[in-house]
Amino acid sequence: MCFVYNADPERGQEWQRLFAQHAPELPFRLWPEVRDPAEVRYLGTWEPVDALERFANLEIVFSLGAGIDQFDLAAIPSHVPLVRMQEPGIVATMQEYVAMAVLALHRDLIDYLGQQRMGIWKPRRVRPAAYRSVGILGLGQLGAAVAERLSGLGFPCRGWSRTPRQLAGVTCYAGESALGDFLAGSEILVCLLPLTERTRGILDATLFERLPRGACLVNVGRGAHLIDADLLQALDRGQLSAAVLDVCDPEPPPADHPLWHHPRILLTPHVASMTQPESAVAMVLDNIARHRAGREMVGVVDRRRGY
Ligand code: NDP
Questions:
Q1: I need a surface site. Which of 16, 66, 152, 277 has the fewest CB within 10 A?
Q2: What InterPro entries would the database entry show (predicted)?
């Protein structure tokens, strides 16, 4: 029996050390060093792995990220649960990134970067966070934590989810029918949705029209949530005033793509949050113990919902 790790080899060394420390009885292999396919009991992977049927004793696939849209769910044997990362490290780093992005937009940092490059000294009016409402698409593990952090900074927060949620200090909206009301009061819109059939392309011209004029966008979900051409048009027309994008489709964008050079876009290379080995290994080992004891695991993907 062994756990196989298939992702960044450098972080894999850390995982190996942590497994040796916390679960010395469970052999750990760094992909592709699998000696016998029959020994693979647990697979932790960022990328999909082909032909999983060859691992006859596979019991759990762990996605090493919070999202699972990179996997073809039909290619994972139906008796094998897919478990995504729900661990404090991913949450903490996402809270930091979104706070940074929202504060940068709120305090006109994109304008000041442009002004600095042109040698322009021009102050803009400053208003406290209480005057700027933030809307968060997705109120799951990450969206809820981000709302809590932004509320703490003084931003009035609203959130949108598929099923009704109740979060202290957050005005919650659920379902397609509530999307318009939610958007109408979102001056900075943060996308923290999973990529599914229903959410692909959701950040399009129609949605941008429903935001207050001059709203800003932070996309930390997936690149395929966004229709790039619609964003560029909305920015050029002034319907949107700026965007911070951590994800795009494809990653990276082609060298001549306007996302690289648009003066009102800040682009980062999919670094908003990252799985942290210490807390992720603890989560994986806890889930393995739960599975062995016949208890429910944390973060099991609902194949019908697609997230
Ligand atoms: P969760 O599954 O915990 O939360 C997803 C949220 O989205 C839930 O509130 C869910 O509603 C809502 N949702 C899903 N589908 C719909 C829909 N059709 N309409 C309305 N709401 C919907 O996911 P996480 O918070 O853990 O992660 C969210 C995403 O963040 C990931 O899937 C990934 O794409 C992205 N991500 C990006 C990272 C980066 O570095 N840029 C890092 C980590 C994640 P409900 O509550 O009703 O289920």
A1: 152
A2: D-isomer_DH_NAD-bd, NAD(P)-bd_dom_sf
Cα–ligand 1 centroid distance for 188 (angstroms): 18
Per-residue pLDDT tens for 255-295?
A: 999 999 999 999 999 999 999 999 999 999 999 999 999 99
Structure tokens that stand for 257 in this block: 């793509």
pTM over cut 0.95: yes
Ligand 1 pocket check for 143: Cβ under 6 Å? yes
Same fold, 2-87+275-292 and 90-267: yes
Positions of E strands within the chain: 2-6, 28-30, 40-45, 60-63, 82-83, 134-137, 157-161, 170-174, 188-191, 215-219, 240-245, 265-267
Antiparallel, parallel or unpaired: β 170-174 and 82-83: unpaired
Residue in 93, 95, 183, 192 to alter for ligand 1 test, most ligand atoms within 8 A of Cβ: 192
- Provide the residue ranges of all domains of the chain, joining segments of one domain with +: 2-87+275-292, 90-267
Question: Tell me, what's the pLDDT at 25?
Answer: 97
CA of 160 to the centre of ligand 1 (A): 10
- Could you tell me which CATH number the domain at 90-267 has? 3.40.50.720
Q: From the CB of 194, is ligand 1 less than 6 Å away?
A: yes
For 154-205, write each residue's pLDDT tens digit. 999 999 999 999 999 999 999 999 999 999 999 999 999 999 999 999 999 9
Among 128, 139, 213, CA closest to 171: 139
Average confidence score pLDDT of the chain: 97
